[in-house]
TrEMBL record:
Sequence similarity: Belongs to the HypE family.
Protein name: Hydrogenase expression/formation protein HypE
Record Gene3D superfamilies: PurM-like C-terminal domain, PurM-like, N-terminal domain
Superkingdom of origin: Bacteria
Species in which this protein is naturally found: Streptomyces carpinensis
Length: 361
């Protein structure tokens, strides 16, 4: 029998689509933290609860922002809530995230962000100096991103019924003529590009939250990406997909794209830029950098013929200096993401169940 098994192993083709891993039971009668993690539980919540309640063709696109047709113009519209803890961390704060996160969601549809709204939920007892610091950080981030905070709202909840400060931002922007960026447009042969080193934001949050030291300070990568996207579109308007890999990290974003487009994604492990500090931190914490959140990075799917020119434009931009070609879109194993490892093997990178690092944005 052992000889037969060995022979089968040698002759049978390796098909990652046949690889499975038992998942924990996740029938939950109540909301758990994993429902907000950007992984499988989040996807189930959207599919089973929100999509049936609000179902419409615009929502069905499931992009980082919705593209609406109004008065002859195409308008990108997005909203997000920010509940990060701690409120301030190396490289940024809740205020930076609230602006950059929504600006980047708009940019992922190719839009030029223009206006934001800002809604604050404040817990009774929080120091006004803290609120002022967050608001000023938002103002500075908005100015840097070239957007205007045009409207807002404030609510206060009783002490013990919040976590200091929560912020919700919504934003609008205009999508240029001829630009059609959405996850369904990924095609076999597309080059997969990431705009810089991954994992910095999640590790920065964890280092402060848990009081951990990794030899060097790890700072969040939070930054606006609209100018970088504009530089890419100046090279070619035929960018197929853009995503900012926040909750669930690069792994979650690539899985969402693969499933939406019905294609496979093959990554080269050695090509993925992971800073040494992130490698060390993830090794210490037992995490995979591919699942760690980012707040100033994007992943792009572009035609192979345009990849070199797009990379050159990205390298010339401050937010794309570390851009790298990390893989390709393939027809094999549709809906799945696999990585060719440095040792010559292959592993499946599945959609995370919940979230490795809770409350990162």
């Amino acid at each position: 029998m052992a000889e037969l098994a060995s022979e089968a192993t040698e002759t049978a083709p390796v098909d990652p689509a046949n690889w499975t891993c038992p998942a924990p039971l996740r029938d939950q009668p109540v909301v758990v933290m994993g429902h907000g993690g950007g992984g499988a539980l989040s996807a189930e919540l959207i599919h089973d609860v929100f999509a049936p309640a609000y179902g419409n063709p615009v929502l069905a696109g499931m992009g980082d922002s919705a593209v609406l047709h109004l008065g002859g113009a195409r308008l990108a519209f997005s909203t997000d809530s920010y509940v990060v803890r701690p409120l301030f961390f190396p490289g940024g704060s809740l205020g930076d995230l609230a602006v950059n996160g929504t600006v980047n969601d708009l940019a992922m549809s190719g839009a030029r962000p223009a206006y934001l709204s800002a809604a604050f939920v404040l817990e009774e007892g929080v120091e006004l100096a803290v609120v002022d610091r967050i608001a000023r950080a938002m103002g500075a981030a908005a100015e840097a991103a070239g957007v205007t905070v045009a409207t807002g709202d404030t609510k206060v909840v009783e002490a013990g019924h919040g976590d200091g400060v929560y912020v919700t931002t919504a934003g609008v922007g205009l999508v240029p003529e001829g630009v059609d960026i959405r996850p369904q447009r990924a095609r076999p042969g597309d080059a997969v590009i990431v705009s810089g080193p991954i994992g910095l934001h999640g590790v920065a949050i964890m280092s402060v939250r848990e009081g951990l030291e990794f030899g060097v300070e790890v700072a969040s990568d939070t930054a606006p990406l609209a100018d970088l996207v504009a530089a890419m579109l100046a090279v070619t308007s035929d960018v197929h997909v853009l995503r900012d890999p926040t909750r669930g990290g690069l792994a979650a974003s690539l899985n969402e794209i693969a499933r939406a487009s019905g294609t496979g994604v093959r990554l080269q492990e050695r090509a993925i830029p992971v800073p040494e500090a992130v490698v060390n931190a993830c090794g210490f914490l037992g995490l995979d950098p591919l699942y760690v959140a980012n707040e100033g990075r994007l992943v792009a799917f572009v035609p192979q013929a345009e990849a070199e020119a797009v990379l050159e434009a990205m390298h010339a931009h401050p937010q794309g200096g570390g851009a790298a070609l990390i893989g390709e879109c393939v027809s094999e194993h549709p809906g799945m993401v696999v990585v060719s490892t440095g040792l010559g093997g292959t592993r499946v990178v599945d959609l995370p169940l919940g979230e490795q690092l809770p409350r990162i944005c």
